Every structure is written in structure tokens, then in C-alpha cells.
Amino acid sequence: MHSIDEAFAQFVIRNRVVGFSEEPFTLASGRQSHFYVNWRAVCDELGTFHELLGLLAPRSLAEFPLARCFYGVPEGGTKLGLILQYELFARKAAQSSDAYPFAMGRAKPKERGPLSHRNFLGTPAGHTVLVEDVATSGQSLLRALKELKQLEGCIPYGVMVLTDRQQRLDGDKSLKELIEEQGLKYFAFSHARGLLERLELPALLSEKIRQEFEK
Fold it and tell me: Helices marked H in the chain — which ranges?
């Protein structure tokens, strides 16, 4: 495992981003699950968020060297997109006089106006990387990607997620496969299976979770 991936996995476990439950609960996608992945507590506290940024920024810029814009999927990826975009600007500004967008998506689009005003506060432009915290059904991410493709001056460049739950989606394909079919790079800092393997799960619960990945 890559050293940054190892550090990232340890950060996830230490901050209890991933966990499990004997009783199933309903995800936002409507699926039932015995494990959760929740980045909200990390992103709500500046100390842990700053530590997270230290893990994210170098690898993000290395994986997407042509990026001109990091854009977070509303609302889970909004903070991530903004802070990564600021980091990109801080590192590139001394090397170039090019303009860098500072884009944020609206959780609830306006009813009127062009797409750039209805759906965005600051419009993504140039080679744009779509950022999400947790990839489950992928519907919000795929919808945001569709919007980016409709924006003049925006070039969808790739997709980056903090944790991929690794569940099959449309036509039994993974989100990674759906993204790569569109000619875009897909990068996940962590995967649910690898993270869960680091936890001490009861045997019966471990089997139930294993079956979730096969659905």
C-alpha cells in the first residue's frame, strides 16, 4: 500500500469515519447497511480538517496535474472542493498569472437564469476535478458531472472521492467503471473493504457486510 494511503487509512480509523452496527440502518440512497462512512465530524472541526488537507493536497495535485479547478459535489464535497482549490491556487500562483475559479455549487438550484447562475456560486472553469466525500449510489456525483459537461469553458477532468463504499450501481457496474467509461480518471483515497478489514468485526456481522458488497 502507498505510504500516503496508509497514513490516510490510519487517519480514517483514528477519527472513526467508518464504523459498523449490528442493526441495519438506511443510507441516504435508500439502501440498508450494517456499516457507515461519515466524514462530517472531521470536516466540521478545523484541527482535523487541517490534518486531512495535509494528506489530501499533495496526492490530489499529483493525481490531477492539469487541474485548474477542484469542485465539490453539493453538499458533501463543498468544503473539500473549496479548500483544495485554494491550496491549488496557493501552490500555482507564484508560477503563473492565470486566473483560477473559486466555485461552489448550490444545494438547491435557482429556478431562473443560465445554468452558471442557477446551479453555481462561482462557476467551475478549465480542467475540473469533481470532489466527493463518500461515494455510495453515486447519483449526486453523476448529476454534478452532467452539469459540468453543460458549462461553457469547463472541461471535466476527473473524479476524486475520499471513500468509495464499493457498491454496484447502474447495470451492476461500479462508480469507477461508470466514470472511466466517460473517459475520465477516477481516484479514491480509501475503499470501504480495506477500511473495514482494519476493524474487529463479529463473525456474523462480518458475513452480513461481505454480502452487501455482492449486491
Answer: 3-14, 40-43, 46-63, 78-92, 115-118, 139-150, 175-180, 192-196, 203-212
How wide is the angle at C-alpha 56 spanned by C-alphas 125 and 49, nearest 5°?
A: 100
Residues 168-179: pLDDT tens digits? 765 578 899 999
At residue 11 the predicted structure's pLDDT band, cuts being 50, 70 and 90, is very high
Is-cis flag, bond preceding 22, omega within 30? no
Grid cell at residue 112:
431562473
CATH code: domain of residue 121: 3.40.50.2020
Query: CB–CB of 54/71 below 8 Å?
Result: no
Apex 209 CA angle, 168 and 172, nearest 5: 10
Residue 102, domain extent: 3-212
Phi, psi at residue 178, to the nearest 5°? Answer: -65, -40
Q: How many domains does the chain have?
A: 1
| Angstrom distance (rounded) from CA 192 to CA 197 | 9
